[in-house]
Amino acid sequence: MSSYKMYDTRRMMNYIGFNQDLKMIAVGHKEGYMFYKTSDVLDKSRLSCGIQNLNNLGLQNCTIIERLFSSSLMIVVSQKNLRVLNVATNNIICDHQFNKPVLTVRLNKQVMLCNNVNCPTESSFLQRVIVCLEDSILIYNIKDMKMMHSIVDTPLNKLGVVDLTSNSGDAYIAFPGNTTTGSVHLFDAINLVSVNTFVAHEGALACLQFNQKGDMIATASTKGTVIRVYSVPDGHLLFEFRRGVSRCVTIYSLCFSSDSKYLASSSNTETVHVFKLEKTEDVSKPEVPNDMMETAAGWLSAFNKTVSTYMPYQFMQVSELMTTERSFATAKLPCVTESNRVALVSHKNHQYLMVATNDGFVYAYQMNPEGGELDLVKQHYIGPESESLHSSPLGNVTNTRSHNDF
């Protein structure tokens, strides 16, 4: 066992997260913030980061840190205070103060309003920042931080469940449409109009996440047993996955791979799940004439509607058991954490599952084309106390161990 004393980062690490293209890990804590490159997690035996304090920002505590991809534009939040700054110069661009704590912040790339490549005006390109409070969502233009619109009287959203498409094609906002049922509301942040509302789960939403292209969204309810993927913006169900049968969990994060072929989920358990986004066909089934297929499909559809009308809860439970697929791969964390974030990172033509935890660690697992249980290949300390612990770097590993063994 190592001679140095373990540190408790749970009271110091307020925020952990990956940026939009999954190339950076952001950590916010009481004294400041820091960034780590995900490529360094895989390539280096010791992580280094640029540590910034909050003294010149006039903030007391970093509760959210959100960076626009790998650019110099960044937003730092301390409870009700928000600062937009240039990370290269650490200069404050503007600041805002709200009457309630800021729960979530999202930024996106430029959205081109004109399909004509010869569009001459700069106004043809827009970028958005959304700020989520528990009862409203505020939409700003990044260029001048002018508030463009406010979505008020939204269902109470104490978890700050919201996401914004980060691609350059659209700027859709997704947030819960109801506090009791798991409906998803889509809002166009460029044209400032509602787009669609659809029911994703029976229970209230706990987590939702767009893919990088912005044409799919993954959702999970507070029950946490079933994860679904819907098309955007029409809300058609594409995939349905079962994380567990009877064990209800809290889903902490969802993340698509950059090519949208995989979806990862992490929770308050030690198991991280990876699902494969592909439609499976049973080639062993005998061919059936089209007219018989249509008749059977019509009868089944009518039966389903009747049953779901009179027994909606029982029908959904049976439907979930019949249609959902199990995870393609799993990874075991050394221990259960109070919070974590998951990412599917592509690096040097390989795919990795990466998990950053609020107790001061980041773990990397190599994806196996065959699925199954994934091998832990790298682990590092992260957070405000990580520099003092580099006398015993974690680096490469060959097996999973508990934190007490480090």
TrEMBL record:
<dbReference type="InterPro" id="IPR048720">
    <property type="entry name" value="PROPPIN"/>
</dbReference>
<protein>
    <recommendedName>
        <fullName>WD repeat domain phosphoinositide-interacting protein 2</fullName>
    </recommendedName>
</protein>
<dbReference type="Pfam" id="PF21032">
    <property type="entry name" value="PROPPIN"/>
</dbReference>
<dbReference type="InterPro" id="IPR001680">
    <property type="entry name" value="WD40_rpt"/>
</dbReference>
<dbReference type="GO" id="GO:0006914">
    <property type="term" value="P:autophagy"/>
</dbReference>
<feature type="compositionally biased region" description="Polar residues">
    <location>
        <begin position="389"/>
        <end position="406"/>
    </location>
</feature>
<dbReference type="InterPro" id="IPR015943">
    <property type="entry name" value="WD40/YVTN_repeat-like_dom_sf"/>
</dbReference>
<feature type="region of interest" description="Disordered">
    <location>
        <begin position="386"/>
        <end position="406"/>
    </location>
</feature>
<keyword id="KW-0072">Autophagy</keyword>
<keyword id="KW-0853">WD repeat</keyword>
<keyword id="KW-0677">Repeat</keyword>
<comment type="similarity">
    <text>Belongs to the WD repeat PROPPIN family.</text>
</comment>
<dbReference type="InterPro" id="IPR036322">
    <property type="entry name" value="WD40_repeat_dom_sf"/>
</dbReference>
<dbReference type="GO" id="GO:0005737">
    <property type="term" value="C:cytoplasm"/>
</dbReference>
